[in-house]
Write a sequence for this structure.
DNA sequence: CCATATTGCGCAAGAATCTTGCGTAACATC
DNA sequence: GATGTTACGCAAGATTCTTGCGCAATATGG
C-alpha cells in the first residue's frame, strides 16, 4: 500500500470501469505492473468489489427517508438486525452508540409508498420501541467516496 | 426500461466490472444487444457512473461517525453546503426536513483523529448552532444497493 | 564491500473482450 | 395486409486483458 496504490483506488472511485490501460497511464505505470497491483488490491481485500451508481429517480425510487430506531431491549437485537438485512428497501443500516440504537436509510417510490412501507414493515420490526422518520430534502453528497 | 434493463442493473450492482459477455449470459441476451442496452442506460443517465468498494479499515479509515447538525439560521445554508462539499472526510451529507437540518457521515482513522477533526473542522462550519455526534458501532448494510 | 535474495518494473504475444455494421424477425400502426 | 419501428443475433476488426520472461533497484547477509 503505497502512493501508487492509493492513486489507483482514487482513479477507480472516479470510474470503477476504467480500463487497466487508462488506469496505468493515470498513475504513471505501464499496463503490466498496474494490472498486478490491481489484482493484489482485490486479493488483499482492500477492494471488496465494484458497483454501479444508479440514479434512484430513474428507477422509480425518488423518495428517500432516514429513520432513527430505538429498541425496547437488547434481546430483540439479533432478530432486528437479521430482518433489516433482508429488506431491500433499507439500503443502509448502522448500529450506533447511545441514542438512537440504529439509523436506517430507506428508498421508496414516493410518499404514499413510503407511508405503506412504514405501516406494513417498519413498525413491525422486532423489538422496536420508537421510530423517528425524517424525509431527505436534498442529497448533498453520496456514493461514499473515501478520502485517499 | 424493462425487466432486462433492471436485470442488467441488478447484475452490475453485484459486480460493476463484470464483462459485457458475462452480463449478456446473465440476463439471457447475446453480447451485442446487451452491450447496446448498457450504453443506452449510461446515455440516459440511469447509470451515472461506476465505483469501487474499498474497505475503509484497510486504508486507515476504521472510524466512522454520524453527525446531526442544526443551523442557527437559513442565511448560512449555502456557505455550509459549499464547505461540506469540499471536505473529503465527510463522505455523505443530506439536508433533512425538520430536525436536525443536516445529517453527515464522517470517516477518520481513529477516535483521536476524529476528535481533532471535530474540533478543527466541524465546529467551525458556517452557521452551526448544534452538533450531535454519534459513533458507528457496526455497519449492518452499506454500499447503497438499490432494490430493483 | 561484495554476493545473493527480493521486489517491482517494462516488454511482448496469445487470449479474451469490446465495438459496430448489417441482415432479420417480431410487433405495432393504420 | 403494407409499412414503420424496435430489438435481436451474427461476425470481424479493434481494443484490452493476462501472463511469462528478463532486467534493474533496493534490501539482506556474510
Amino acid at each position: 500500500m503505497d502512493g501508487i496504490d492509493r492513486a489507483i483506488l482514487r482513479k477507480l472511485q472516479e470510474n470503477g470501469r476504467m480500463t487497466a490501460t487508462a488506469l496505468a497511464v493515470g498513475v504513471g505505470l505501464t499496463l503490466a505492473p498496474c494490472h498486478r497491483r490491481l489484482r493484489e488490491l482485490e486479493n488483499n481485500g482492500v477492494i471488496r468489489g465494484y458497483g454501479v451508481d444508479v440514479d434512484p429517480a430513474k428507477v422509480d425510487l425518488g423518495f428517500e427517508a432516514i429513520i432513527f430506531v430505538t429498541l425496547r431491549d437488547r434481546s430483540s437485537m439479533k432478530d432486528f438486525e437479521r430482518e433489516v438485512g433482508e429488506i431491500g428497501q433499507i439500503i443502509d443500516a448502522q448500529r450506533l452508540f447511545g441514542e438512537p440504537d440504529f439509523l436506517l436509510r430507506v428508498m421508496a417510490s414516493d410518499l404514499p409508498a413510503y407511508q405503506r412501507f412504514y405501516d406494513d414493515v417498519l413498525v413491525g420490526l422486532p423489538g422496536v420501541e420508537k421510530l423517528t422518520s425524517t424525509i431527505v430534502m436534498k442529497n448533498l453528497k453520496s456514493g461514499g467516496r473515501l478520502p485517499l
